[in-house]
Every structure is written in C-alpha cells, then in structure tokens.
Amino acid sequence: MSHWSFPAAVIALIAAASAAGAAPGGVTAIVGATVFDGTGKAPYPATVTIEDGRILAVGPKVAPPRGARIVDAKGKALLPGFFDVHTHWTPAGKPAATPQIASDYVRLGVTTVNDFHEQPESYAPRREWLTQLVSPHVLFAARIGTPGGHGADWADDATTILITTPEGGRAAIESLIPYRPDLIKVFNDGWRYGTMPNNNSVNEDALKAVAEEAHKQGWPVLTHTVTVDRGLEAARAGVDSLAHGMQDRRLTADEIAQIRKSGMAMAPTLAVYEPVKPGQAVRDPADPRLAIARTRFATAFANVKALHDAGVRIALGTDAGMPGTPHGSSTLHEMELLVQAGLTPSDALLSGTSVSAGLMRVDGDRGTIEPGKRADIVLVDGAPWDRIGDVYKTWQVYIDGRLVSGAGAPAPPAANRTDRLPSTTVAALIDDFERPDRRSSLDTLRLDTPDGGNDRSIEVSEVIAREAGGHALSMSARMSRKAAPYAGVAIPLTRGSVRPVNLRQYQGIRLEIRGSGDYRLSVNGLDGSFSAPLPAGDSWQTVTIPFSSLRAAGAEQRADGAKGWTADGITQIEIGGRGPAGGRIWLMVDNVSFY
Questions:
Q1: Which end of the chain, C or N, has fewer beta carbons within 10 A?
Q2: pTM of whole model > 0.90?
C-alpha cells in the first residue's frame, strides 16, 4: 500500500491551513488516508477533495488541484461522520445544556443526531440556535403516544400528542405540519421490562394511520418498541424502524422473516440497556434486578444478531441523555456493543453511517464518502474496520467541509462556550386570553402542567367569555390520588421557552384571579423556579406579586428568601395549585402582565 508523503515545508503549510479551518470558496484535499466510504467497499487508500461543503472527488488517482489546502492524513482512517438516531438532549430538557451536548458529539465525530426530547414549539428557535454553534446536524422527532402510555407520563401534551384511534393519528400528523419535524417517534409499546407496572400501548390501526400520514410528508417513523409482539405490529403498520431492541423473548424464524419482508429496520440502543455501563460501580450480583437486566440484554443481543444475519438493517441509536448514557461517547460505545452482539466491525461502522443515513432518508445527502455528498467526515488513528475501539482515536472532524474539531481546528465560537442564549426582553402584557388558539399575547403556546406519572391529575384549560366582557382562562382539575397532587398552566415568554428573558425592567407580576384551591405563582428559568402564594377566592380580585416576594423552590423557610434570583434567564410564568388527593380545584385568570 502506498501513501502520499510531504516535506516539512508542506506540512507547515498544512498546519496553517488547518488552523484556519476550511474557508468557503477553496478546495481542501485530504491525502494519504485509508478511506472507509460507507458504501460496502473494502477500505482503500485515496485522496478526498472538498469544496463548498461537498465532497468533490474520491479516489487513489485524484490529484489535489493547485492552491488546495492539503491535509496530510497519512496513517489515518477516513470515514463518514457518525449518526445517532436516538438521543435526548437533556439533562431535564434544559436549553442550557445544548452547547455542551453539541460539543460532546462533535469532538467524537458524531455529525448527525435525532433529538427525541423537544416540543414542536421549540423546533424553530432551536434550529436557529444551532446555526450559532459548532454542532452536529440535529433532526427533531415529534412524539406521539397514547393516554397512560410510555412518554405520556410527562403530562405534557404539547410535547407528546396522545392518540387512541386512526382518526387521532391522522389529526396528530396534520397538527405537526406547520412545525416541520424531521421524523416521528411513536410510543407504541407499554411493556416496562418486567420490573415496573406496564403502560398502555398504541393500537395497531392508530399506528398504521400515523405511519401512512407521516410518509406522505416524507417523515420516517420510529417507535419505542421493546417486545416482539409490538415489533411485529410495527412491521405490519409500516414503521420505518424500531428505536430500541426487542428484549422480552427471542424471535422465531417466521417472525424474523416477517420483519425482513416489511423492510423495517431496528436501532437497538444497546448502550442504554447495558446492565453495568462504562464507569459505573459493579452491581451486587445478588440483586435480582441485575439478573433480569442481564437476561433482557442477552435477548437483545441475540435478536440483533438474528435480524442482521437475515438482512434486516441495523441502525445506530443509543438513547443518550438517559441515565448512564452520556452524549457522544455512547454513540461510539454502541458500535462496540454491536460487535459484541455479533456484527463485524465493518458492519458496525455501516450501521453508524450509511445504514442510519438511509433510515433517515438523508442518504442522498450524507452517510457515505462519495462525490456530491455533504463533507461530514471523521479522521481517526488506526483501522476501526479491524478494531472497532479505534473509533475513539479521533484526529479531526469536518462538518459541511469545515474542520470543527481535532488537530488544527480553530477554537469553537463563543456560543459553544456559554450555557445559554443571550436574554431578550418582552412586552409587559403576558396574556389577556383574547386569542382563541391557545397562544398568549406574546405569541407563545400555553402549556398545561399537571403532575406527571401514571396516576396524574387530569386538567382542562380553556378560554371562556367573562360576564363583564372579554375572555379569561379557565382551568379545572381532578387531582390524582397521591401526595401533593398538582395542576397548572405555564405561559412561555418566548417560543418553546428556548430563549431566556431578562425582566430587570419590571418590578413584579399583576393579574386578575378567582378560584378554589391552594395556588402559587411561579417564575421558571434556567437558574430554577421561584414562587409566591397566590390568593384566590370566589370573586375576581386583582393580585400584585412583587419579584421581591418570590422564594426559590424548596427555600421557603430560608432567611435569605429568593437567593439566586437575578430577574434574568427567565423562561415561563406558571400559575398552578394543589388540592386534596382525588379532589377537584378550579381557577380563572385574566390580564397577566408585568409591572
């Protein structure tokens, strides 16, 4: 095997060019690498040229054009950027986590991810934010579940749309069209792994309706599916891929044949189910939960191997953001686990590149090293097609043809080095409830915020006419039968609560209220939640809550009161209350404003 080599003067030029990144309008030539192109070919030595964010040419006889920026990659492996088709950009959905999560993926060569965690209202502001970051390409999944199902326990129907019928499924997809999601996730399986009470599952006819309508929009459909029977339902319904592995029992030959015939893929997310994850303490071998987890994991391994051997596509997903499953490193670890399950290292690399690109319907744009494709590229030391652990030896990462991480990369932009977007300001009027579309006077979508879990408070909020004229918000709730049940309504100050707000120009909040229950006004933000009691009675009254009366959550008895309150980083105003378990509360609110 021959490689390109360069004298010291040229290598110095390489370093200077690399430090500047790949500026638009020029050609970058990566020479001397062994290319794993993701097409199924064996790795081969080649030069790869890049221009305007796209791969210009690939091949052993490609000559760098005059004036090209030369990257000497002798001894390196060049691969397509990696995919992760199942992530949650957490912790706890805080927007402040976004820059760090983006950086964690980029530095390890993960250049396209699916985010399963966001409400549709946040897609547009998040997409805009991501343009300010060095970030992987992020595809947003709209979530659909069923009452009492997994995913519905957040009690947030603005994030997870709940359906029970085909009509509901079709309506859910129609409601999502203005938001332009990139894919749909359906929680069609309520099995809780034999360790918790099961949730409800989406009916097969409703799932089929969702898949049919989503496909009309060009959106792939992935499902939270962890059992064989629900996996077969998903295959019959036309689902594109399972977003987990099936773990309750081993597939039969006939069931494998059904799945193969359907064309459905699977992203087994072995990383999230590994009984003892990297860096975790050794678990007590006498713990019965460990034995259950190991049995499930062995079953998942066996089903991955059986499906792959039968020709079923195995994509790469991790469920990163869930406990013990960190962003970035879990994607690479998933490849190791696929190899442990019986795939070859080359197969695992294909799962993490072209197979996942095909599943997401972006294979015409990226996922392989071919002319015309997006130049999302990772260079590593070693030969990961022989030793999958070499994927951790990241040398350089390119996204859209720009060197963004690794040797010679420029420093990331300031947006990657802060924990939040710059705050904005908003008008004094938060909501007068005169709009009929659930949107506030700030043009944000109001959110019902009942307590979560399987047993949760059931609330109804709606805009109604006031006797004196105009409209008000009415909320009524039947409280769950548990300690301190809660129901409320939150008003985001910006779309999707993504961009925070600085409230230092105001002194507090004023509103009109009547109701029956124990109510509080909360001001939620990136630094926590701050609240004050909110008196309410049978008659309308105007209540003024100065910011000085707010107390940090859990700190009502502290002498320093609202320690940490800065009036900055604020995302929502929330009005809610508690009542007796199994009881009812009601509330009416109008003309909420800052003063």
A1: N
A2: yes
Average pLDDT over residues 210-215: 98
- Token pair of 146 as six digits: 């069923």
Going 130 to 135 to 139 to 140, the CA torsion angle's sign is: negative
Nearest to 433 by CA among 420, 442, 424: 442
* Whole-angstrom distance, CA of residue 220 vs CA of residue 222: 7
Total count of residues recorded for the chain:
595
Kindly give, in sequence order, each residue whose CB lies less than 8 Å from that of residue 378, ignoring residues fewer than 6 positions away: 78, 79, 80, 81, 82, 109, 111, 394, 396, 397, 398
Residue found by looking up tokens 């990566």 in the block: 30
46-55, 250-259, 261-270, 510-519: lowest mean pLDDT where?
510-519
- How confident is the model over 364-385, as pLDDT tens digits? 999 999 999 999 999 999 999 9
CA distance 267 to 359: 10
Buried b / exposed e over 116-148, threshold 16 CB at 10 Å, is: bbbbbbbbbbbeebbeebbbbbbbbbbbbbbeb
CA–CA separation, 45 and 78 (whole Å): 9
Contacts of 303 (CB under 8 A, 6+ apart): 228, 245, 246, 247, 250, 251, 268
Cα distances (angstroms) measured from residue 251 to each of 235, 248, 296, 301, 567: 14, 9, 13, 11, 56
**Dihedral (CA of 578, 446, 243, 277) sign:** negative
| Other C-beta atoms lying within 10 Å of the C-beta of residue 91 | 12
Distance CA 256, CA 305 (A): 11
How do strand 241-242 and strand 265-266 relate by DSSP bridges? parallel
Tell me which residue of 204, 190, 198, 212 sits closest to 234, measured CA to CA: 204
